[in-house]
Design goal:
The structure holds 2 protein chains of 2 kinds. By secondary structure, chain A is of the alpha+beta class. Chain A contains 8 helices and 9 strands. Classes of the chains: A alpha+beta, B alpha/beta. The complex binds iron/sulfur cluster.
Chain lengths: ~325, ~220
Amino acid sequence: MIGLQVIQDTAMTLMDKAAIEIPEDYLSGLKHAAQVEDGDLSSFVLQAMLENYEAAKEDRRAMCGDTGCPRWYVKMANEARIEGGPVALETELRRATANATRSIPLRPNRVHPLWRTDHDNNVGINAPEIEFAFEPEGDWIDLTTVHKGGLFGTDYRMLFPSDGIEGIKRFYLDSLVAFGKRGLSCQPAIIGIGLGGSKDTCMVLGKRAACLRTVGDRNPDPRMAELELEFIELGNSIGMGAMGFVGKSMVIDCHIEAGYCHTGGMQMSVHAFCLSSRRACARIHADGSVEYRTDPHWFTPYQRRETVEWPAILPSKKSA
Amino acid sequence: MASNTAFKKVRLKTEPAQEDLRQLALGDVVYLDGSVYTAREGVYRRAVEENVPLPLDLPAESGTNFHCSPAASIADNGDFNMGAVTATASFRFSKWIATWLELSGAKLILGKGGMSSKDYREHFVPHGAIYLTTVGYGTGALLGRGVKRVKNVFWREELGLAQAMWLIEVENFGPFIVESDLDGNSLFERENAKISAGLSKVYEGTKPAVLKRFGETDDRSDELI
Ligand code: SF4
């Protein structure tokens, strides 16, 4: 049984880590971009960003004044049991979000869309988002918080099979060019692309591809992996760098995730995880021990499964 | 990596003289000393649309408007804790800016992404104001270091923490980049024009979507703002 106190303490630490410490994978990606960037202004911006991460860590202050929208991803192993059940867990995550907003401090961003009312704590109707997933083995839970910034840099479009890869490329470029101007998407970013699913799944997949996979990670489907690499190059060949200044640092990495879709369609979403690619993760074991990390390991073979049964039983074996 | 030595670095007062602004070229790097206040849609709506008198004496107390909501909290004893400060995108404030510049006498507008050169020419130039963009834009921790103290916070009850008017004392506050000059030129637009020239090559081989959308354009030099 996992106790509520350890969940509360871990969630507070995660809020703090996410807001202040840039994940190592993104940082090394950005350092590489800074090395190859030859646009003057764009280089200056990248240098300032690198100094900013240092300043944030040294002073223990948020790296960006804009909190973005803090959200939670919870993964429960099949045998995990939580004191008070999932409702108590959700309450702890909402509490940690509110308390950390005050203690770090974070900017309270969340307001009612119409009445603009505000609890000054990043908590409200449907906020923070808490998403759940499961894994077949174990008795642990993984908590991941992502502070996703960016009012800009995201788009959705219903494409069709006849649009093909060339249509996908065009929409990808359109999103980067449109939101990259003046640096509205706070590039260089980790770009996540959702393909297929239904409209909502497509958005969810693209966002998770951007926020829950680390720089350097490749899709296990070799052809999709190839496409990811091609898209990194394509994005960096636009001629645009940080803040939309002339340069070539637009994309730190590109992750693509797919979901089975309606036979007539090919949904596509594009998401940009900005210069403040804030994510922090921890595994809480049943004995109360906690391990912190920055890689959520979200997209496991189980999450990407295609079969009815798990462990996967291939159709030919099933009939045997 | 390109060398950064090409950039002129300037220390500027938050109530600068016109001659100081005249010296600045697009792309110069600026650090500020003095007092800066935050004002965005909440403040603009209240001051410009509802004609509520300003809670402080502008521009006497500050000539610099920051499009920002700080990451800050107010303790029960009234103490302020300000962590990071980051700008918010300025183009959304276009409809209020003319009256605001009139009311506030601001000479420096700080924010994210700039505004259009049309706004600069029509509203900034007549008021002798320029636009400085934050860098990054996520450099909230660096900017936070330049904040000496919170002098006051106005309209906190009426507008909430994020939209309230924070008056802060700053020293060596930056970096900012000069985005518009006293003639109303825009650095972003200059950069956009350079990038647009190469775009058709990048798009080569792609094709427009089968299903079109309203308002769709294939002119890649267009901006969304
Ligand atoms: S998009 Fe990211 S870096 Fe930019 S202001 Fe928002 S949180 Fe900060």
